[in-house]
């Protein structure tokens, strides 16, 4: 049976010591985030996820969701009861707006909960996760009537939400959607069409589901400029807030997937369903992007989450399984074999996982702080800078985070040897669940193109230049400390590779856009390596400060320093290889005709 314990100690380190969240108490929404409250939220969230959600993870994978003949869907055994506990405990309200019944805590604490939930049970976590995204979109673009109608129930978790983009003929290219929205003459629209891959599209956890649906109105441009966004509830809502008639939306089927079986990924059929315009007509994509960006950050956390749970189980196995002898001589002469933990190749995989998960946790929570500061920093300049940085980080967190999260999950499966291939150990599920994160909310190739094609050049490159200055300044400050100098110097070299790659794009992408497309994925990984290097530099600085005071948990901080050195030795050098790959351009990548790829002649 797989295990899970929430990494509360490392999370407290990031939130309290690295980010020093309590120091932002003068900002709106931060005043209640006192050190005691922060620790309480972290510890209790960890306990809830480990005790309530984690035991259902395997159940969800093995049982899955069931669609009935009437189109209704039952979630796996135990999910409905767990959701009731989740809602009654108020976990879904942690980072939600107070005006609609939320607790109004910073997004940082919301991201902590997202990690713990995703690690303990990713399929379950997606239900409230999509609901939170729908709340964000309604808050940003909804009318006052729409907000008052839907948000109190959604924030309370009594209703959940979805996002409906994809159709059979279109995924990334949303300009190709065919779903139609015909005016009814009373301010509502009749929505007709088919949406696929709709996570949490139908279920039995709540009495109503609020679908946010992309569709085109009559005469709208046949492109992304003609897309509008509509609120389409599963059950219509009466004027007094009670539920009325069933709307014309139904679950046609549940997709047969390789993973996240506990989440109902549905084909939804809209047959004249009544919906209401959310935001402005033909500007639905901008409104939906509020939800999509929140989802992309959430998927980045899923990359971390599956890496973390796979890592925990691999460590436990490596400290129990005996095979062979240590290369330097028997580590345990009294036993017939040594623990596999002593073997360098096993240790390599475990160390790779350790430095990724701890570095990625720091990045995700720093990203959450940037989200908070983009709305609540005291000056317009600070808000703008935070917004630019999180915009730049979003595709990196989603793309690099899930690529590496999947790599870690497969390596942790490798630690188990043949047992990793056997379902009862649970490692197969972690690998299968991790794989989807590289695909949905925009494939990682799309994330790379968003980073390189949109974010790098945005506002004349202001965001990337701000990032370069941020890292340069922290490197310069660290070089003055001889205990940080080696890490700082190696990070500086990796940053230099990223700067050179950026310049190469500037010189070569305009003349041939394929050069940008050919190198975008390499650039995204290069930046991921650099930004995790920044996180390890920051963590090392904090660890040294703490060790100077002879803390009780001295070993924790010493391990941070060793891990940082490992990251510098084993991850930062990859930046140079990625730059050289990028600079190879697109000539040979794009040279062959289709016939050269068709080998079954």
Short characterization:
α9 runs antiparallel to α11 and α14 packs antiparallel against α16. By secondary structure, this protein is of the alpha+beta class. β1 and β2 form a beta hairpin.
Helix content: 40-55%
Task: Tally the beta strands.
Answer: 11
> From the alpha-carbon coordinates, what is the Rg to the nearest angstrom?
24 Å
Note the total helix count: 16
Distance between the termini: 47 Å
So what's the overall shape?
Answer: globular
Helix/strand-derived category reads alpha+beta
The arrangement of helices and strands along the chain is HHHEEHHHEEEEEEEEEHHHHHHHHHH
Residue stretches low in confidence (pLDDT < 50, at least 5 long) are: none
Approximately what portion of the residues adopt beta-strand conformation?
5-15%
**What's the mean pLDDT score?**
95
Describe the biggest sheet? 7 strands, mixed
Write the layout of secondary structure elements.
Layout: H1 8-18, H2 35-53, H3 57-63, E1 66-67, E2 73-74, H4 79-88, H5 107-141, H6 144-155, E3 159-164, E4 180-183, E5 189-199, E6 208-215, E7 228-233, E8 235-237, E9 243-246, E10 249-254, E11 265-277, H7 284-318, H8 344-376, H9 380-415, H10 427-436, H11 444-455, H12 462-479, H13 485-508, H14 513-547, H15 554-570, H16 574-582
Parallel strand pairs: 3-6
Antiparallel strand pairs: 1-2, 4-5, 5-11, 6-7, 7-11, 8-9, 10-11
Helix pairs in contact: 1-2, 1-8, 2-5, 5-6, 5-7, 5-8, 7-8, 7-9, 7-10, 8-9, 8-14, 8-15, 9-10, 9-11, 9-12, 9-14, 11-14, 12-13, 12-14, 13-14, 13-15, 13-16, 14-15, 14-16
């Amino acid at each position: 049976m797989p295990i899970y314990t929430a990494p509360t100690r490392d999370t407290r380190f990031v939130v309290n010591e690295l980010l020093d969240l309590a120091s932002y108490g003068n900002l709106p929404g931060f005043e209640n985030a006192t050190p005691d409250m922060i620790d309480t939220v972290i510890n209790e969230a960890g306990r809830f996820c480990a005790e309530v959600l984690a035991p259902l993870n395997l159940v969800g994978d093995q049982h899955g969701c069931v669609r009935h003949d009437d189109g209704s869907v039952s979630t796996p055994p135990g999910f409905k009861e767990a959701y009731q506990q989740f809602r009654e405990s108020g976990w879904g309200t942690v980072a939600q707006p107070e005006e609609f019944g939320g607790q109004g805590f910073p997004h940082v604490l919301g991201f902590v909960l997202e990690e713990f939930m995703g690690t303990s049970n990713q399929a379950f976590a997606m239900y409230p996760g999509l609901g939170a995204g729908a709340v964000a979109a309604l808050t940003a673009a909804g009318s006052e009537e729409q907000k008052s109608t839907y948000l109190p129930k959604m924030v309370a978790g009594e209703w959940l939400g979805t996002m409906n983009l994809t159709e059979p003929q279109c995924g990334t290219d949303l300009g190709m959607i065919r779903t139609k929205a015909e005016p009814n003459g009373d301010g509502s629209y009749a929505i007709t069409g088919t949406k696929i891959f709709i996570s949490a599209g139908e279920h039995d956890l709540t009495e109503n589901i609020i679908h946010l649906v992309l569709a085109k109105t009559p005469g709208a441009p046949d492109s992304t400029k003609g897309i509008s966004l509509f609120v389409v509830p599963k059950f219509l809502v009466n004027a007094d807030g009670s539920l009325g008639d069933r709307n014309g939306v139904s679950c046609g089927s549940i997709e047969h997937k390789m993973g996240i079986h506990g989440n109902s990924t549905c084909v939804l059929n809209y047959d004249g369903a009544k919906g209401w315009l959310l935001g402005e007509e033909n500007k639905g994509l901008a409104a939906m992007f509020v939800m999509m960006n929140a989802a992309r950050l959430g998927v980045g956390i899923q990359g971390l989450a599956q890496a973390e749970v796979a890592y925990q189980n691999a460590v436990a196995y490596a400290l129990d399984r005996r095979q062979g002898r240590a290369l330097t001589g028997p580590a345990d002469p009294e036993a017939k074999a040594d623990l596999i933990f002593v073997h360098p190749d096993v240790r390599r995989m475990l160390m790779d996982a350790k430095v990724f998960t701890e570095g990625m946790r720091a990045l995700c929570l720093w990203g959450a702080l940037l989200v908070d500061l983009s709305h609540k920093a005291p000056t317009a300049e600070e808000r703008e800078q935070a917004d630019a940085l999180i915009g730049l980080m979003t595709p990196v967190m989603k793309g690099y985070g899930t690529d590496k999260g999947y790599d870690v999950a497969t390596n942790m499966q490798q630690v188990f040897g043949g047992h990793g291939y056997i379902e009862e150990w649970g490692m197969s599920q972690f690998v299968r669940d991790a794989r989807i994160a590289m695909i949905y909310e925009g494939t990682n190739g799309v994330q790379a193109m968003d980073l390189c094609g949109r974010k790098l050049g945005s506002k004349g490159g202001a965001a990337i230049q701000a990032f370069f200055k941020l890292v340069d300044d922290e490197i310069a400050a660290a070089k003055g400390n001889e205990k940080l100098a080696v890490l700082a110097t190696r990070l500086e070299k990796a940053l230099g590779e990223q700067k050179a790659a950026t310049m190469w794009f500037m010189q070569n992408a305009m003349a041939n856009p394929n050069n940008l497309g050919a190198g975008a994925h390499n650039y995204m990984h290069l930046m991921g390596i650099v930004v995790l290097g920044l996180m390890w530099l920051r963590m090392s600085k904090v660890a040294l400060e703490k060790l100077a005071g002879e803390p009780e948990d001295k070993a924790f901080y010493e391990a941070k320093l060793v891990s940082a050195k490992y990251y510098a030795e084993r991850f930062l050098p990859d930046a140079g290889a990625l730059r050289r790959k990028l600079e190879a351009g697109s000539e040979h990548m794009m040279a062959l005709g289709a016939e050269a790829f068709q080998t079954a002649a």
